[in-house]
Sequence to fold (82 residues):
Amino acid sequence: MQKRKRYASIDKKECVACGSCIKICPLAAITVPKGIHAEVNRNQCIGCGKCLKSCPASVIEIVDEVMHKEDISYEKQTKKVV
Fold:
C-alpha cells in the first residue's frame, strides 16, 4: 500500500514575494509571512500547479511524495511543470 502527496515547493532564496502565487491558489495554501518570501502549507496544498505557472521568477516546483507503508520508506520526486 502506498500513500501519495503532491505539493508545491518554493525556493525561498529566489522568491521575490510578488504575491502572484497567493492570488491564484484555489485553497489559500500560500502565504508571505513578513513579506520576505512565499511559503506553502503542505497540509493544504494539493499540488495543482497553478502557482507554478503564475510565478514570474520560476521558483516553484511540484513535489510528488510517495510513501510505501509496507517498508516505511518514501520516495520524493520533484517535477517542474511547464
